[in-house]
Amino acid sequence: MPVGIIGHYKCGEHDMGEHHPENGNRLTAISDQLIRSGLDYVVRQFDSKPIDKSLLALAHTQKYIDFVFDNAPTEAKGEDKGEAGENFTVGEDAVMNSKTLTSILYSAGAAVDAVDLVMDGTLGSAFCATRPPGHHAEHDKGMGFCFFNNVAIAAAYAKQKYGLKRVAIVDFDVHHGNGTEDIIKNVFKASPKDDKGYLFCSSYQYPLYPFDIEESDTPPIINTPLAATTKGKEFREKLSAHWLPALHKFKPELIIISAGFDAHIEDDMSQVSLTEADYRWITDELKLIANEYSGGKIVSVLEGGYAPSALGRSVVAHINGLIGN
Ligand SMILES: [Zn+2]
Q1: Which of 56, 46, 98 is nearest to 74 (CA)?
Q2: Given this model, what pLDDT does residue 87 score?
Q3: Residue from 229, 106, 115 nearest 169 by CA
Q4: pTM (global) more than 0.85
Q5: Which of 117, 142, 140 is nearest to 127 (CA)?
Q6: Which listed CATH number (3.90.180.10, 3.40.109.10, 3.40.800.20, 3.90.1150.30) goes with 3-323?
Q7: Contact 179, 60 (CB under 8 A)
Q8: Using CB atoms within 10 A of its CB, is residue 17 exposed (0-12), middle (13-18) or buried (19+)?
């Protein structure tokens, strides 16, 4: 089955200010490495569509959605001052310029488009090369470079549209996916007594932003902290011990990946020291599980990764894993 990459050039235009690490060059770095590796000839590439605003309510309150839309700077309003710092602050380190709302809609739109392309059999699996990221966005607030939670929206959409009973979200970004956990608990109402058909596995350096995290081995939340000294061997041991048994027990009909690459040794955002080989390893493990329970269905969505070259190379390793090269 073909593997697809979904994105849109408008995702590159959101700008949180000069020297901000979450910038459009990240997507350029991914494109460059896809070309350099020859993968751009192997994968199918799709332009995403902007998400229907009503779908944001699958994971967020209408009050928060309206707050973002009503305050979004637009060029038409003459509010774009060029410097994002002068524009609208949604939450802690989540700032909108005149391009941001459009980027948000194409970014979330890619995640639901990816669900459609994988569920209708056009693709075996898909990677969304999009920004802004989403896993820190909670049901009623944006934070940590994130505005709306792309993976949580995609998971709820997959269940609503395709009647899936069990969707797993796995998050190997070096930061905890607090927004995804919040939505699973407070919007999807999942609990240890009733998982509601969701399983969330997150590995993260601890302590590190967003700090207030409880370790858990109880579904629907598997929170697996990593020490700052973690290298590939320990990362693999921890995920093998905590994630893989939970995923096998859950038997997901779709795996959605919050694919953050900021645990890479070259990424200054954390002290964890992973390499491309470790991202290939976890992708291979997730693919084995997807092959066993869902005919290989994986939707992967970019989260962090701020060292451009390492990000591009890690995405290549991840996509090679999805392809099985
Ligand atoms: Zn991160």
Answers
A1: 98
A2: 84
A3: 115
A4: yes
A5: 117
A6: 3.40.800.20
A7: no
A8: middle
Q: What was the pLDDT predicted at 75?
A: 73
Q: What is the 205 CA–ligand 1 centroid distance (Å)?
A: 10
**Angle of helix 276-294 versus helix 308-323 axis, rounded to 10:** 30
pLDDT at 85: 41
pLDDT, averaged per 10 consecutive residues of the chain (325 residues), comes to 97 94 98 98 98 98 98 71 66 95 98 98 98 98 98 98 98 98 98 98 98 97 98 98 98 98 98 98 98 98 98 98 94
Classify the phi-psi angles of 163: left when phi > 0, otherwise alpha if psi is within -120 to 50, otherwise beta.
left
How many angstroms does the Cα of residue 175 sit away from the middle of ligand 1?
4
Domain ranges of the chain: 3-323
| Dist. CA 163–CA 160, nearest whole Å | 6
| DSSP letter, residue 265 | T
DSSP secondary structure of 117-157: HHHTTS-SEEEE--SS--TT-BTTB-BTTBSS-HHHHHHHH
The Cβ-side half-sphere exposure at 82, using a 13 Å CA radius, reads 0
Ligand 1 centroid – CA 173 distance (Å): 5
Going from the C-alpha of 97 to that of each of 77, 141, 143, the distances in angstroms are: 12, 17, 15
Ligand 1 mean position, distance from CA 21 (Å): 11
